[in-house]
């Protein structure tokens, strides 16, 4: 029972790991499509580095999951081997006991037939008890033989599981080596692009300053909004509807839908090392989500559009209020909403700009703000 229960628990964990590995490999396949587009355009850009960086993270995640799967299978192999050893010893003892019982029964029946044993009773009650006793002995022997057969089947089943686990470990190790080989070649490709872009240090620093300028413009607009809306958003005289929306928004932390239907996070929140420039960091007030071709931005929660404004070099930015929270969507074109519109969850805001200079990749800059900037990755769904 113990071995069966333990194996069951481990099996559930292994199933979860297999599902995680499958999802990660599917995401790697999606990233591959982005990289193929970039390769066709022969583009060596920051976007390409970020996409490859994401792929490297995913590849390392697959390898870690495989290591965990191998570890779980190794533990199960040890348990099954131990179970086979214990059951084997038990079966030997049972067989010996059963053989002795059969021999003793044969000797007894030869000298004292069961019928004589019953008829030699003093009275009817004693004869009946002797009959029941003989029946119990027969039943016990039959059960012993059944236990031996059951134990034999369990041993065979455990051996089969052991063999299957050994095969799966061998298969996983082979796949793991393939993943490591792919990881190494992708790391080399990233190094080549980094080396190529390192020669454009002046342009990269200029791009970084432009990114800071855009972030500052967004921060200034948010500051104006907060100043205009402070009484409605922050203080206790917020309308009941705004308060309820804000509370529901907070309750859905970690479960909000993505601001786009499909994409990968290519830039994370907070202080990050620059992918190319040495000893240079950038402080991101949000995240960037990249996809190839057309990508539509959508509201992550119901709310009200409080600002739609252009930023030079970043197209249109849309800010939506959800009670005391603000969600920000930058680099939008073909905007479908205007200030004052009430939006529902997943309602389209506009298209994310598809950059012809970057293999037509689309990158959404997404932020969440209350009294300070929050990490959007901790608010949106992990799936």
Q: Can you offer a commentary on this structure?
A:
The protein has helices spanning 2-41, 46-111, 114-119, 124-198, 201-233, 240-251; strands at 264-267, 270-273, 281-284, 287-292, 295-298, 303-310, 316-322, 325-333, 342-343, 348-352, 354-355, 361-369, 373-374. The model is unreliable at 5-9 (pLDDT under 50). The protein folds into two domains: 2-198, Orthogonal Bundle (Helix Hairpins), CATH 1.10.287; 201-378, Glucose Permease (Domain IIA) (Distorted Sandwich), CATH 2.70.70.10. It has six helices and 13 strands. The strands form two sheets. Strands 1, 4, 5, 6, 7, 8, 9, 10, 11, 12 and 13 form an eleven-stranded antiparallel sheet that branches. The chain starts with a helix and ends in a 9-residue tail after the last strand. It has 383 residues and is α+β, with helices and mostly antiparallel strands. The longest helix has 75 residues, at 124-198. A hairpin with a 5-residue loop joins strand 11 (354-355) and strand 12. It is 61% helix and 17% strand.
Keywords:
single chain, 383 residues, alpha+beta, Helix Hairpins, Glucose Permease (Domain IIA), 2 domains, two-stranded antiparallel ribbon, 6 helices
The secondary-structure class comes to alpha+beta
Q: Could you name the CATH class of the largest domain?
A: Mainly Alpha
CATH third-level topology of the largest domain:
Helix Hairpins
Question: Based on CA inertia axes, which overall geometry fits?
Answer: elongated
CATH architecture of the largest domain: Orthogonal Bundle
Tally of helical runs? 6
In whole angstroms, the N-to-C terminal distance is: 36 Å
Please bin the fraction of helical residues.
55-70%
Q: State the low-pLDDT regions, or none.
A: 5-9
Reading the helices and strands in chain order gives HHHHHHEEEEEEEEEEEEE
Q: Name the average pLDDT.
A: 77
> What's the total count of β strands?
13
The domain count comes to: 2
Task: Note the main sheet.
Answer: 11 strands, antiparallel
Tell me the radius of gyration: 35 Å
Oligomer: single chain
Q: How much of the sequence is in beta strands?
A: 15-25%
């Amino acid at each position: 029972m113990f071995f069966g229960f333990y194996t069951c628990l481990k099996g559930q964990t292994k199933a979860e790991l297999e599902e995680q590995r499958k999802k990660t490999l599917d995401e790697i396949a999606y990233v591959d499509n982005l990289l193929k587009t970039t390769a066709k355009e022969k583009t060596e850009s920051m976007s390409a580095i970020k996409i490859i960086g994401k792929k490297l993270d995913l590849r390392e995640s697959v390898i870690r999951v495989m290591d965990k799967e191998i570890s779980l299978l190794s533990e199960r192999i040890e348990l099954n081997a131990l179970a086979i050893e214990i059951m084997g010893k038990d079966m030997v003892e049972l067989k010996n006991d059963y053989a002795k019982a059969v021999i003793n029964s044969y000797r007894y029946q030869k000298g004292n037939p069961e019928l004589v044993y019953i008829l030699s009773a003093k009275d009817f009650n004693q004869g009946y008890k002797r009959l029941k006793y003989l029946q119990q002995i027969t039943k016990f022997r039959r059960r012993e033989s059944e236990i031996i057969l059951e134990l034999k089947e369990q041993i065979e089943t455990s051996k089969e599981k052991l063999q299957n686990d050994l095969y799966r470990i061998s298969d996983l190790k082979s796949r793991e080596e393939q993943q490591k080989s792919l990881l190494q070649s992708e790391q080399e490709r990233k190094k080549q692009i980094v080396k190529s872009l390192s020669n454009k240090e002046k342009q990269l620093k200029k791009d970084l300053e432009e990114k800071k300028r855009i972030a500052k413009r967004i921060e200034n607009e948010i500051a104006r909004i907060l100043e205009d809306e402070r009484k409605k958003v922050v203080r206790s005289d917020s309308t009941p509807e705004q308060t309820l929306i804000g509370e529901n928004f907070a309750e859905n932390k970690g479960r909000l839908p993505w601001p786009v239907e499909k994409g990968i996070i290519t830039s994370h929140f907070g202080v990050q090392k620059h992918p190319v420039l040495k000893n240079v960091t950038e402080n991101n007030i949000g995240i960037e989500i990249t996809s190839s071709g057309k990508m539509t931005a959508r509201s992550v929660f119901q709310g009200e559009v409080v600002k739609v404004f252009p930023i030079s070099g970043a197209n249109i930015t849309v800010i939506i209020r959800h009670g005391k929270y603000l969600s920000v969507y930058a680099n939008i074109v073909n905007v479908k909403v205007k200030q004052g519109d009430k939006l529902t969850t997943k309602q389209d805001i506009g298209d994310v700009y598809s950059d012809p200079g970057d293999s037509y990749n689309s990158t959404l800059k997404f932020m969440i703000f209350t009294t300070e900037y929050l990490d959007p990755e901790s608010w949106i769904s992990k799936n």
